[in-house]
Amino acid sequence: MSPRTRNIVVGVAAVVLLVTVVGPFVYINFIKDDPPERLSLDDVTTTTTAGGGTSTSGAAAAGVEGDWEVAAGSIVGYRIDETLFGQDSEAVGRSESVTGGVTIDGTTVTDASFEVDMATFESGESQRDGQFQNRIMEVEEFPTATFVLTSPIELGAEPAAGQEITATATGDLTLHGVTREVVIDLVAQRDVSTFAVEGSVTVTFSDYEIDDPSGGPASVGDEGELEVLLVFRR
């Protein structure tokens, strides 16, 4: 091999290294925004009345019994570990297009359900969102995901305003047209006129007949995490 040819080969190898290794490393670690933190009750904004004023403590006197609806500030999201050109990263997408409600009889949650519009998830990466909506989740055929409580949740006692309680929700999660029973550990906190619930559950893609989400330079495993932060108001 002549010196000139050797120099060309070395140059090409350097360019390949730059594009496939150095470029993604710089993008993921120095340019790309960090993925958002996990959803938590700290993300819930201060409760206000319809007129814009702060809710009064008198609203809390009504107790927790009755029907509650999913309100503004509710979020459903996914979180998936991915590898891009050998660099570890995290894909996070979220939607605020959530509806549903809860019924509490005494101190027992007797009914609960929520639904999310699958076409409204955004991750900050248009290419990823396109893959999510089309090839992966096929949202035109399966436009919503739902959760329906199948076992009552016993609260034990009525929580005071500001008090955090833990609970376990057992129910049917329907995703990509497939329904599976899931158990979600929840943390809830009551405000003066609302209460908020946050939790997460691991979802195995093959259980819901979701094809391997890996595509192009991005590689992921067979599971991800479903995160929920639900705010309820009467």
Q: End-to-end distance, in Å? A: 79 Å
The averaged pLDDT comes out at 83
Query: Which structural class best describes the helix and strand composition?
Result: alpha+beta
Query: Are there runs of 5+ residues with pLDDT below 50, and where?
Result: 13-32, 46-60
Rg measurement, Å: 23 Å
CATH superfamily: Lipid/polyisoprenoid-binding, YceI-like
Summarize the biggest pleated sheet.
8 strands, antiparallel, barrel
Helix count, DSSP H or I runs of 4 or more residues: 2
Helix proportion = 10-25%
From the coordinates shown, what is the CATH architecture? Beta Barrel
Q: What would you call the shape?
A: elongated
Following the backbone from N to C, one meets helices and strands in this order, namely HEEEEEHEEEEEEE
Strand content: 35-45%
Number of domains: 1
The spatial strand order of the largest sheet comes to: 1-4-5-6-8-9-10-12
CATH fold label: Lipocalin
Helices, strands, pairings?
Elements: H1 3-31, E1 66-70, E2 75-84, E3 87-95, E4 98-105, E5 108-117, H2 126-136, E6 144-149, E7 153-154, E8 164-175, E9 178-190, E10 194-204, E11 218-220, E12 223-233
Antiparallel strand pairs: 1-4, 1-12, 2-3, 2-11, 2-12, 4-5, 5-6, 5-7, 6-8, 8-9, 9-10, 10-12
In short:
By secondary structure, the chain is α+β, with helices and mostly antiparallel strands. It has helices at residues 3-31, 126-136; strands at 66-70, 75-84, 87-95, 98-105, 108-117, 144-149, 153-154, 164-175, 178-190, 194-204, 218-220, 223-233.
